[in-house]
């Protein structure tokens, strides 16, 4: 294993992994390195192995039009810029527009320390970041050009807002109570009983509070992206050129510093790869 491998970063990105899971991760990284004829397993190999385990395999053969790549780049750039300007959030670890698993792209954040609970300010920051993709699409391409790519983001914002209101007592209007709209008993995937235990007025208030949280996050996200529109363009163009950027590379790009792509391999007989080990693509994914 290369001495440049950062075990701390790997640990941050693998919460809940058992010893066996970590052993499989190391084996997967070693296989990836072997396929590239490397003599040492590098940090890039561990990152690729972790992404494959957590997100699914990269689908580089997927054909995407240039318009789709551009929209995906701005979608992920929206999440990234919203994260950079949400100090309560976990920092960006990496962003990519390479189709992976069921996603066309992603922004990955890693915690700086172990956390057993979530603070209100951090939860609200997550709501803001969740809105970043859709808001960026709308700002750059117009309301008529938005896509269903934000479906999982919208689901996350909705579910998180509802938990804040009905489970975590984070609504001043509804107080420190737990609210359940129907029975939690499940049989063969269907609710056995729809025992209504909320009044119509309470159910309406819950809906209003959930909508308020979502709209508050949307407004805050829109202001962040409008105030930092140049950063949005820089990050999106960087993703289009390099496809994958680390959190530090995103910050450097905004400062005008272009990323480098240097592969570490101590095998002197192995031809050196070009400086841009992450390939640049044209109208379709490689």
Features:
two-stranded antiparallel sheet; mainly alpha; single chain; three-stranded antiparallel sheet; 5 strands; 10 helices
Q: Please mark out the parts with pLDDT under 50 across 5 or more consecutive residues, or reply none.
A: 183-187, 190-195, 263-286
Helix content: 40-55%
Treating each run of at least 4 consecutive H or I residues as one helix, how many helices? 10
Global Rg? 22 Å
Mean pLDDT: 84
Which structural class should the secondary elements be placed in?
mainly alpha
Estimate what percentage of residues fall within beta strands: 5-15%
Strand order of the largest sheet: 2-1-5
> Which geometry do the CA atoms define?
globular
Count every beta strand, where a strand is a DSSP E run of 2 or more residues. Answer: 5
Q: What kind of sheet is the major sheet?
A: 3 strands, antiparallel
What secondary-structure arrangement, pairings included, does this model have?
Elements: H1 7-12, H2 19-35, H3 43-55, H4 66-84, E1 92-96, E2 106-109, H5 120-130, H6 132-141, H7 151-166, E3 186-187, E4 190-191, H8 200-227, H9 229-242, E5 244-246, H10 247-254
Antiparallel strand pairs: 1-2, 1-5, 3-4
Helix pairs in contact: 2-3, 4-5, 4-6, 4-9, 5-7, 5-8, 6-8, 7-8, 8-9
What's the short story on this structure?
The chain is mainly alpha-helical and 286 residues long.
Please explain how this structure is put together.
With 286 residues, the chain is mainly α. It has 10 helices and 5 strands. A 3-stranded antiparallel sheet has the order 2-1-5. Strands 3-4 form a two-stranded antiparallel ribbon. Helix 2 crosses helix 3 (43-55). The chain is globular and about 65 Å long. The protein starts with 6 loop residues before the first helix and ends in a 32-residue tail after the last helix. 30% of the residues are buried.
């Amino acid at each position: 294993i290369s001495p440049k491998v950062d075990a701390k970063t790997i640990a941050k990105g693998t919460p809940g992994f058992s010893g066996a899971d970590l052993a499989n991760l190391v084996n997967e990284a070693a296989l990836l390195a072997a396929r590239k004829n490397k003599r040492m397993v590098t940090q890039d190999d561990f990152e690729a192995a972790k992404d494959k385990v957590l997100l699914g395999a990269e689908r580089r053969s997927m054909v995407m039009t240039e318009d789709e790549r551009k929209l995906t780049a701005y979608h992920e750039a929206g999440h990234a810029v919203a994260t950079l300007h949400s100090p309560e959030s976990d920092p960006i670890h990496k962003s990519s527009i390479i189709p992976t698993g069921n996603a066309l792209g992603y922004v990955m954040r890693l915690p700086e320390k172990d956390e057993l609970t979530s603070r209100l300010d951090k939860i609200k920051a997550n709501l803001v970041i969740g809105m970043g993709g859709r808001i960026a699409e709308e700002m750059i391409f117009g309301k008529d050009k938005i896509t269903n790519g934000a479906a999982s983001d919208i689901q996350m914002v909705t579910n998180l807002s509802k938990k804040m209101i009905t489970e975590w007592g984070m609504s001043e209007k509804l107080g420190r109570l737990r609210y359940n709209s129907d029975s939690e008993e499940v049989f063969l995937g269907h609710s056995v009983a729809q025992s209504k235990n909320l009044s119509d007025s309470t159910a309406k208030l819950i809906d209003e509070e959930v909508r308020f949280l979502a709209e508050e996050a949307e407004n805050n996200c829109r202001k962040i992206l409008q105030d930092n529109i140049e950063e949005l363009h820089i990050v999106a163009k960087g993703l289009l050129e390099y496809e994958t950027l680390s959190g530090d590379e995103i910050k450097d790009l905004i400062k005008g510093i272009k990323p480098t792509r240097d592969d570490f391999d101590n095998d002197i007989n192995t031809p050196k790869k070009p400086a841009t080990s992450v390939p640049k693509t044209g109208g379709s994914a490689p």
